[in-house]
Design brief:
The chain has about 300 residues and is of the alpha+beta class. Helix content is about 45%, strand content about 20%. It has seven helices and ten strands. It has helices at about 25-45, 50-70, 145-150, 155-170, 190-205, 225-260, 270-285, and strands at about 20, 70-75, 80-85, 85-90, 95-100, 105-110, 115, 120-125, 130-140, 210-220. Strands 7, 8, 9 and 10 form a four-stranded antiparallel β-sheet that branches. α6 (about 225-260) runs antiparallel to α7 (about 270-285). The chain starts with 20 loop residues before the first strand and ends in a 15-residue tail after the last helix.
Length: about 300
């Protein structure tokens, strides 16, 4: 009988509000204790000595030292995760001078927006062509508890997930489509960027991170096929242009024959129509300027 392995699911941590106090209030208390300690010491030295004053001085000094160890600062767009012997007790997002019990530890984390431009990576697109891609992502921490305690290194986690998401998106679409019938990486930046953002939000949710903006900053064929693909693009562009030119020429010839027939300008039999169509197609589809030939005789 084979061994049975049970994989434990990740128990996500959720951010909560920490029980902290204003540092300015505790600073006032500390100053009062400092004044009491100074008064007790000076009065014992310069006046009548009393043992209770020495006790008062010692108590004030110990309490003041404990209060002094509990001060910390929080800058704008910054937070502090509070822990008690490794147990998460909440997050403080209030800016300014803050105070907490000295035996509680504080881990600061920035919640401001971060801008990352990924390295260029080589990806095979939907048609198997090797391409180079890079993305620009604006992200920020929304849940400090998840970012600090649910992943090992949340910044490294972001970089790894950006690369994975770019590879996934790059393999779903072709680089280009000359007929514009498919969603492509080169021709549909908004759609591709929106799908990349959605994929990143799903991937980074486990770390308490959201994505505000993202898009491709680099998109090109890999060097080994860049020349061949450029020639193919040029050939496809020429073919597409020729197709449009022929379609337009045929439409113009049809209009010319229809107007001549409706207004009874000239009566054309099939042979004359064929000659007229041939001449018009040469004029409309030719790459060089045509030279008119004056016919002074009869077609027959």
């Amino acid at each position: 009988m084979g061994d049975l392995y049970v994989t434990a699911a990740l128990n996500p941590t959720r951010e909560g509000r920490a029980a902290t106090a204003s540092g300015y209030l505790m600073l006032f208390v500390w100053l009062v204790l400092l004044g009491i300690a100074i008064w007790a010491g000076v009065s014992n030295v310069t006046g009548t000595e009393a043992s209770w004053k020495w006790v008062l001085l010692a108590v004030s000094a110990i309490a003041g030292t404990l209060i002094l160890c509990g001060f910390y600062l929080i800058n704008p767009n910054e937070a502090a995760a509070i822990q008690l012997f490794g147990s998460y007790k909440g997050t403080d997002r209030e800016t300014g001078l803050r105070w907490v019990l000295p035996w509680l530890t504080r881990r600061k984390i920035a919640v401001r927006a971060n801008n990352v431009i990924s390295d260029k990576i080589k990806v095979n697109d939907l048609r198997g062509n090797p391409i180079e891609m890079a993305a620009q992502v604006v992200w920020r921490v929304t849940d400090t508890a998840q970012a600090l305690f649910d992943v090992e290194d949340y910044k490294g986690f972001v970089l790894a997930q950006i690369e994975a998401a770019v590879r996934s998106i790059g393999s779903r679409y072709p680089y280009d489509d000359i007929e514009h019938q498919e969603v492509t990486l080169r021709g549909n930046h908004d759609e591709v960027g929106a799908e990349l953002r959605k994929a990143l939000i799903e991937r980074l949710a486990v770390a308490g991170i959201t994505v505000d903006e993202c898009g491709l900053t680099h998109l090109a064929y890999a060097q080994e096929i860049a020349g061949a693909m450029l020639r193919r693009q040029q050939a496809e562009a020429v073919i597409a242009a020729r197709r449009k030119l022929v379609e337009g020429a045929v439409t113009m010839v049809e209009m010319a024959l229809q107007h001549l027939s409706e207004k009874d300008v000239v009566q054309l039999d099939d042979e004359r129509k064929a000659a007229m169509v041939s001449n018009l197609m040469v004029v409309l589809c030719g790459e060089r300027d045509t030279q008119p030939v004056v016919n002074t005789g009869s077609l027959y």
